[in-house]
Amino acid sequence: MPARSTGTATISFGLVSVPVHVYSSAESKASVSFNMLHKKCGTRVKQQYVCPKDNNEVVPREDMVKGYEFAKDQYVTFTPDELKALEEKATGTIDIIEFVPLAKVDREYLDKVYYLGPDKGGDRAYRLLAKALKETGRAALGQFAARGQQHLVLLRPREEGVIVMEQLHYADEMKSPSEVPIPEGEVKATELTLAKQLIEQGASDEFDPAKYHDTVRERVLEAIQGKVEGHEITTEPAQDGGGKIIDLMEALKASLAKGGEEDEEEDEEEEGASKRKSKRARKAS
């Protein structure tokens, strides 16, 4: 099924305008959620807002106002019209401010990802921008107002000729890595050599996320289906993880040995599959 556009926009750089469609880059499969029920009758319970100052009086939505806490327990309130006036006006324009080396953009800034596709009349300019970004190794940095907010965005090309729009965090939203406490110390050369060998042992030349899936979500959904069918959920006994290797050097050596054994098992499985395939081919002939 073709991708469904979630909106439209116009990329603006210099005097060039590129009308585009905006598409979601992923379909979120959030963790399995459970509802709160009344234990006695199984009915789903409802949330209520109460005022602790007025003897926990239930406050209906029409009696609520929005406020901003400017000091401890002190609020300034806003009417719906005032809040609407504060919202950033959506222009539908992705205003490109500068072009930066794509390799220089830290991945920590990434917030959300969207695909952009050419809208009617924008095919030629879209292809031109995508190819120019690819051949220069640069990405377009700009701002885009949507849903009452102004977002920092980065446009980068993909191999397929598609332009990706990444919504970034602003600098003042980011925490400094220097806040992470890391004790001083040195890396031993022998341990570094083994660590590099371990990395090479598990290295791949391609990024293939299709090899991975959420096994926890699958297990939970399977258990829920079993519960629906009348089966009880039982707790599996905890598996013995074996003795802990405290020494870093020993841990590295054991990891390398384990990886070698797994490689041998994979080779044996591939060899066995190849022999079975050849045997079936001979029978067929």
Q: Would you mind describing this structure in some detail?
A:
The protein is of the alpha+beta class. It has a domain at 90-171: Ku70, Chain: A, Domain 2, CATH 2.40.290. Helices cover 30% and strands 26% of the residues. It has five helices and eleven strands; from the N terminus they run ββββββαββαβββααα. It has helices at residues 80-86, 123-136, 189-201, 215-228, 248-284, and strands at residues 5-13, 16-24, 50-51, 57-58, 66-71, 74-78, 93-101, 110-118, 138-146, 149-157, 163-168. It has a seven-stranded mixed beta barrel. A two-stranded antiparallel sheet has the order 3-4. A hairpin with a 2-residue loop joins β1 and β2. α3 packs parallel to α5 (248-284). The longest helix has 37 residues, at 248-284. The chain is extended and about 75 Å long.
Entry summary:
This protein is of the alpha+beta class and 285 residues long. It has 5 helices and 11 strands.
Give the helices and strands, then pairings:
Blueprint: E1 5-13, E2 16-24, E3 50-51, E4 57-58, E5 66-71, E6 74-78, H1 80-86, E7 93-101, E8 110-118, H2 123-136, E9 138-146, E10 149-157, E11 163-168, H3 189-201, H4 215-228, H5 248-284
Descriptive keywords:
285 residues; Ku70, Chain: A, Domain 2; 11 strands; 5 helices; 26% strand; extended; two-stranded antiparallel sheet
